[in-house]
């Protein structure tokens, strides 16, 4: 039986490196657009096999032991997506195609299946096939430094941007591409708030500009206020229990800043034209700002053909 599914007018694609990256970096944005009826597609590039394990009874799943953490994290990711209301999740090239490379400079970078070693065009073509199916108008991934320098984040950036290049001649590349970011003003406020605290996540940092993900406010393009989804983001983070312990500083900050910390996320615009915004820097409050409206006759829904 052939099944034809029509996707919503708004379609958002996210490319992340490991399970849990989606929740920490873009969870509220994903939940916000999913709740608003947009089609949200999450592509995760690895299973996160090299992650630390914060659940003692699962310690033997580690890469140096049974090497089963990646399989376990598939279930964690499924639970996180459910918390965010995201129903379309894929692993790049299929689950297990690419392996977590570990932190930069470790021997795990050289594993033959490490994502860091992946052929760029081959990996990008896997993503192009998803773009061809979903036809996203907007894509989110990391900047060229992978937000903080992890090799898999850097490679996810390279693969995503190469896929945009490959998809453009065929006419289904995203119109807008955003990179995750953190404004300098927000980081400075955090440094001030936690100065002298015994639970200071910024210990040893004197200036916000010392942080690799610090972005001047003028370079921020969008501020997505999804405070109504802060609980969904926290639930998604808690679903990744092997990676984010209950005592994590992330929850400590959430306890101090609440919905604003969990619910507001920021992005720079790498591809496309910035839409209408507000404030001193004209920050957009919608990633689809400036794109054709849903009732525009030139913006037709996408039909996806599947088989059962």
UniProtKB/TrEMBL annotation:
<feature type="binding site">
    <location>
        <position position="153"/>
    </location>
    <ligand>
        <name>Zn(2+)</name>
    </ligand>
</feature>
<dbReference type="GO" id="GO:0008270">
    <property type="term" value="F:zinc ion binding"/>
</dbReference>
<feature type="binding site">
    <location>
        <position position="18"/>
    </location>
    <ligand>
        <name>Zn(2+)</name>
    </ligand>
</feature>
<dbReference type="Pfam" id="PF02585">
    <property type="entry name" value="PIG-L"/>
</dbReference>
<dbReference type="InterPro" id="IPR024078">
    <property type="entry name" value="LmbE-like_dom_sf"/>
</dbReference>
<keyword id="KW-0378">Hydrolase</keyword>
<protein>
    <recommendedName>
        <fullName>1D-myo-inositol 2-acetamido-2-deoxy-alpha-D-glucopyranoside deacetylase</fullName>
        <ecNumber>3.5.1.103</ecNumber>
    </recommendedName>
</protein>
<dbReference type="InterPro" id="IPR003737">
    <property type="entry name" value="GlcNAc_PI_deacetylase-related"/>
</dbReference>
<dbReference type="GO" id="GO:0035595">
    <property type="term" value="F:N-acetylglucosaminylinositol deacetylase activity"/>
</dbReference>
<keyword id="KW-0862">Zinc</keyword>
<feature type="binding site">
    <location>
        <position position="21"/>
    </location>
    <ligand>
        <name>Zn(2+)</name>
    </ligand>
</feature>
<keyword id="KW-0479">Metal-binding</keyword>
<dbReference type="GO" id="GO:0010125">
    <property type="term" value="P:mycothiol biosynthetic process"/>
</dbReference>
<comment type="similarity">
    <text>Belongs to the MshB deacetylase family.</text>
</comment>
<comment type="function">
    <text>Catalyzes the deacetylation of 1D-myo-inositol 2-acetamido-2-deoxy-alpha-D-glucopyranoside (GlcNAc-Ins) in the mycothiol biosynthesis pathway.</text>
</comment>
<dbReference type="InterPro" id="IPR017810">
    <property type="entry name" value="Mycothiol_biosynthesis_MshB"/>
</dbReference>
């Amino acid at each position: 039986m052939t099944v034809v599914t029509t996707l919503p007018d708004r379609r958002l694609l996210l490319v992340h490196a490991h399970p849990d990256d989606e929740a920490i970096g873009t969870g509220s944005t994903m939940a916000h657009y999913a709740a608003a009826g947009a089609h949200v597609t999450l592509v995760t590039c690895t299973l996160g096999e090299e992650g630390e394990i914060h659940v003692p009874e699962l310690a033997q799943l580690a890469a140096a032991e049974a090497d089963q953490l990646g399989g376990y994290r598939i279930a964690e990711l499924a639970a996180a997506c459910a918390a965010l209301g995201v129903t379309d999740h894929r692993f790049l090239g299929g689950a297990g195609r690419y392996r977590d490379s570990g932190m930069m400079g470790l021997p795990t970078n050289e594993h033959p299946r490490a994502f860091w070693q992946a052929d760029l065009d081959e990996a990008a073509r896997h993503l192009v096939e998803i773009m061809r199916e979903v036809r996203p108008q907007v894509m989110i991934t990391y900047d060229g430094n992978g937000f903080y320098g992890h090799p898999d984040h850097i490679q996810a950036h390279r693969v995503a941007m190469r896929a945009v290049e490959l998809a453009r001649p065929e006419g289904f590349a995203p119109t807008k591409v955003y990179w995750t970011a953190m404004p300098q003003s927000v980081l400075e406020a955090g440094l001030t708030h936690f100065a002298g605290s015994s639970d200071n996540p910024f210990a040893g940092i004197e200036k916000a500009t010392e942080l690799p993900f610090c972005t001047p406010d003028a370079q921020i393009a969008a501020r997505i206020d999804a405070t109504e989804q802060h609980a969904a983001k926290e639930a998604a983070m808690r679903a990744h229990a092997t990676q984010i312990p209950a005592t994590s500083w992330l929850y400590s900050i959430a306890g101090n800043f609440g919905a604003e910390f969990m619910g507001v996320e920021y992005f720079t615009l790498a591809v496309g034209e910035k839409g209408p915004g507000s404030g001193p820097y004209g920050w957009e409050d919608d990633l689809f700002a400036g794109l054709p409206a849903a009732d525009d006759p030139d913006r037709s829904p996408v039909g996806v053909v599947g088989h059962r």
